[in-house]
Amino acid sequence: MNDDYRHFPVLKDKIIEIISQEKDKLLNFQKEVVFIDCTLGLAGHFFSIFPILEMATFFLIDCDFDSIQIAKSKIYSYFNTSDLSRVYIINHRFGDFLCNGFNSYRKKFEQTDFLITLADLGISYYQIKNKKGFSFNINSFLDMRYSGEGTTVYEILNFFEEKKLIEIIDRVLEDLNLSKRICGAIVKARERRSLNTTFDLNQAISKVVSAKSMKDILQKVYLALRIYVNQELEQLSKLLQFFNNYRKDFLLLIISYHSLEGRMIKGFLKQTGLSFEKYKPTKDEIMINKPSRSAILWVIKNYPS
Predict the structure, then answer these.
(1) Separation between Cα atoms, residue 86 and residue 91, nearest integer Å
(2) Does pTM top 0.85 for this prediction?
């Protein structure tokens, strides 16, 4: 496989274990099952889950058109067409789909009474390597959009007021003085010439951040910009809102990667009182896939044990 398509599905073994256990219970209750993969990516989780849920209807969602085309090609070359008659691949933001588009598909599973949903909120290796603006180690245009729609990071950095820039970056940085210094440096740099590439942004930030702290600060600044551009927290909020109002049985699996996502999930759990468990990657998994070290799998249940 092309190295740019390399992908390690985070906590895959634990997710398979959980779904396999719950599947046995569902068979006892003769439940009709729908599975939603909110972030299909390159279909790493799907390939392991599809054989387990033989009769489920699958909705595979991703807002990244390029990723979804690669995933679709892999899926259709691996599985029989007849098996895929119960699979719907949808290019959409998952929160918007659940709150708006999901209802248009209900006639296809009116008898469904159990919903399994997986949302891996992380960015893929493919996106870091191939999508413009995601990596501060690759000099590329400041885009950072998953879908190719909406505002680019280039527009944010060059045209947003300094106050708004501070708000966006401090959401992740959580150090107002440092956020102000960084945004001041960005504004000063764009007054000389526009910031077009990731290296332009890095250079501006280097004026106010030490070399020792640079990597850590860049990770947080890029995360803040990515979250804003792609409405990531808004999409998570819509996902949680959907399940706050969903009245049938469900199993919700969310993989979060940073404290902003974690706080939102904790708030949802406190509000709903739902039972849940948390899991982290094993040391062996982290050795193979270092970015997984920050992942937390939230297993949220709304049905009798």
Answers:
(1) 17
(2) yes
Instruction: Examine the pLDDT at 265 and tell me if it is beyond 50.
Output: yes
d(CA 272, CA 174): 28
Q: Of all residues in the chain, what percent carry a pLDDT higher than 90?
A: 70
Strands of the 275-279 sheet, one edge to the other: 87-91, 57-62, 33-37, 114-120, 249-256, 296-302, 275-279
Q: Per-residue pLDDT tens for 44-93? A: 999 999 999 888 889 999 999 999 999 999 999 998 888 888 899 999 99
Distance from chain centroid for Cα 137: 21
Cα dist from 265 to 168, 238, 274, 294, whole Å:
21, 12, 11, 15
Determine contact, residues 224/172, Cβ cutoff 8 Å: yes
pLDDT in the model for residue 145: 95
CA angle 286, 214, 122 (to 5 degrees): 40
**Is residue 3 predicted with pLDDT exceeding 50?**
no
Average pLDDT score over residue span 273-288: 92
* Each residue's pLDDT tens digit, 189-230: 999 999 999 999 999 999 999 999 999 999 999 999 999 999
